[in-house]
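INTERNAL AUDIT FORM
Audit reference: QA-55
Scope: verify that the stored structure record matches its stored sequence.
Auditor: D.O.
Record contents follow.
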Amino acid sequence: HSDGGAMTHYYLGKAYLALDRYGEAITAYESSEKAGYERDVVRLALAEAYRYDHRLEDSLKLLDGLSGAIEQTAEYLFQRALTVQGLGGSQEEYRALLERAVQADSSHAGAFFHLALENDRYGNDDYARELYERAARQFPTHLGTLLNLGILYEDMQAYDRAKQCYDRILD
């Protein structure tokens, strides 16, 4: 019941994406761009929607078409990292992009989570824990962040901290 303007379409796209309705999200984002919403911001959102819709080549093509300051943003670096990973690209490039994303924005929960997960897989528990803790301070905190952080705390025998994570999940 909104005005149907550019911002409306953009946030409608975000809502559809959160509901796993990727085709509708893409349509809403395209309408947003046609209505005048900031092109680069819409393109990043479209790249994410394409990635979730398993259209990784389309996502990469959109990202490759962006240039300038947007390429230094955490969201761009994050979307590029996940797209590269989805296409089976270099793990080194994936990790480097995530590292750059967390340096660009100290509140990008997605970049913190994926970088923590990557370090967790390779046994870098202290760094992974630090990254999960930073991700857990963001709102909203994702359940995977709290679950993985709780498991790391259990491994450290910090059961009170693990319990706090699990309580937050239940809340």
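Auditor finding: record pair retrieved intact. The radius of gyration is 17 Å.
Action required: none
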